[in-house]
Amino acid sequence: MASKMVVDYRKPENRMRYFKSLYNLNLVFKVHPGLVYLYMPELKKYYGWSDEDSLWFATINGHTQNPITSLKILEFMPTIPQSNIEWREAHAKFNDAWTTLSFDTDRNKQKKDTIAGLFSYAELVKEAGSQAKLWSYKTYEQLWNNATQIKSFGRLSSFSYLEYVKINGYGSDCTDLMFNDFSGSRSHRNGMFFLIGRDELVFDKRQPDSHDGNYPHFEDTCIMLENRADKFLREFTQEFGYSPDTSKFTLESCLCQFKNGFFSRRYPGVYSDMGLDRIRWYDSRGFEKFTEPFKEIRANNLPDWLREECEKEVVPRKVKASMFAETGKPFRGEYLLEKEE
Fold first, then answer.
1. Backbone torsions φ then ψ of 317, nearest 5 degrees
2. Separation CA 319–CA 123 (nearest Å)
């Protein structure tokens, strides 16, 4: 009887196989960061939102990057305020609810700028005539220019927000992963280095013999990475078939997820597990009315093995996250990788 062969997906020759399966998992079950690809369309159906309602929710979420929090803010700001009095009332309600509004780590420092950011967005909408017009018939560069005019939106926030706009049927796909943004793009740049087996170029203090970041031909290297990203998306589509969410937006986050697997930080389905944390945070404070739609969406759309709430014996997150780095096999790997014999 032949002995069982164990594939080590940390090895450069096996990484692409694992990454494609990870990316496909994220696309099929819509378990990208924040679960926004799953939540946003389902919430629109759940509440019967119009396109303008959905775009307003997306904008609020651009500030919070936590859909439950965005829904809670939407309760006292269901539409864009139309007068200074309405803005003052909204600001007062926001301040009153401050301690019960949980923001994503990437947006927590900008929490204080939320109302000012939404007001700056409202000014853009007023000039365009509607939210739909603001995000229609424009190049990605023009869309980027609009997004970066929103107060407190930097590179990461603008990128994520334009992704939310696209999820809602407006805007366009990202055309530039901005690998040459030295600091802002370091995470997915490192992810691409890992993916193509150029570990010696990974610039991260957690990486043994890390690169020092002084790349001699940085711009040329970034062009090469952009070309490799384009090639990957073409080949992935040929192999796995068309998906409306196959894009540079979803590729960027998957590269970050993949990279962090080498450092015992991420694993397949991690964003579903993190989504449960957010539900529990609000439930523990008595806000079940805001979490109920999210529980229902999870139950109706995710298999049991992608929902930590269904685990009979919950595996500690640190154990889940360390499996790939320590063994070469990711947590939940049996559901996305072929059995090796």
1. -60, -40
2. 47
Domain count for the chain, please give it. Answer: 1
* Residue range(s) defining the domain that contains residue 244: 12-261
| pLDDT single digits (tens) 15-47 | 999 999 999 999 999 999 999 999 999 999 999
Q: Is residue 74 part of a domain?
A: yes
Distances in Å between the Cα of 150 and the Cα atoms of 97, 177, 232 are 23, 20, 32
Tokens of 108: 């927590």
The answer to whether residue 3 is domain-embedded is no
CB of 68 within 8 A of CB of 294? yes
- The predicted model scores a pTM of 0.96
Which ranges of 65-213 does DSSP label H, i.e. alpha helix? 67-76, 84-96, 114-128, 131-134, 140-147, 155-167, 186-195
Q: Are 39 and 67 in contact (CB under 8 A)?
A: yes
**Is 195 part of any domain?**
yes
C-alpha–C-alpha distance, residues 247 and 255, integer Å: 12
